[in-house]
Amino acid sequence: MFVCLDGSPPGQDAAAWAEALAASTGADLIADEAERLGSLASPPDLVVVGAAAGQWYPALHLDQPAHALVARAGWPLAVVPGGAPPGVRHLVVGVDGTPASLDALAG
């Protein structure tokens, strides 16, 4: 799992959320700047980014590197709203018909 760090309050909330998820699942967690994602030896199982709280479409309120991730993500992506407590309560899954998106529904 990879969490994008940018120092913003929503980014800090996303990091706390990712840490709780990694602890509960035993997943390895890499926390770094979004630009470093491309230098990983293998794609992560999940990328976590923060978004401004209270917005109707969080992806529009990401910082520049995280917004670029949403636009070109070839991996599962969790957008965590600012202020979200650690842990998964509700989940929205985007499906585009590709095998990878259908796998997201199965897991």
Describe this structure in words.
With 107 residues, the chain is an alpha/beta fold. It has one domain (2-106). 32% of the residues lie in helices and 15% in strands. The protein has helices spanning 9-25, 64-72, 99-106, and strands at 2-4, 30-32, 47-51, 77-81. Strands 2-1-3-4 form a four-stranded parallel sheet. The longest helix is centred in the N-terminal third of the chain and has 17 residues, at 9-25. The radius of gyration is 13 Å and the shape is globular. It starts with a strand and ends with a helix. The mean pLDDT is 78.
Order of helices and strands: EHEEHEH
Query: What is the radius of gyration computed over CA atoms, rounded to a whole number of angstroms?
Result: 13 Å
What is the quaternary state of this protein? single chain
**Overall strand count:** 4
Q: Kindly state the mean pLDDT as a whole number?
A: 78
Q: State the end-to-end distance.
A: 15 Å
* Low-confidence residue ranges: none
Beta-strand share of residues: 5-15%
Apparent shape: globular
Numbering strands along the chain, what is their spatial order in the largest sheet? 2-1-3-4
Query: How many individual domains?
Result: 1
What level of helicity do the residues show? 25-40%
The largest β sheet comes out as:
4 strands, parallel
Structure class: alpha/beta
Number of helices: 3
Which terms would index this structure?
single chain; 107 residues; alpha/beta; four-stranded parallel β-sheet; 4 strands; 32% helix; 15% strand; globular
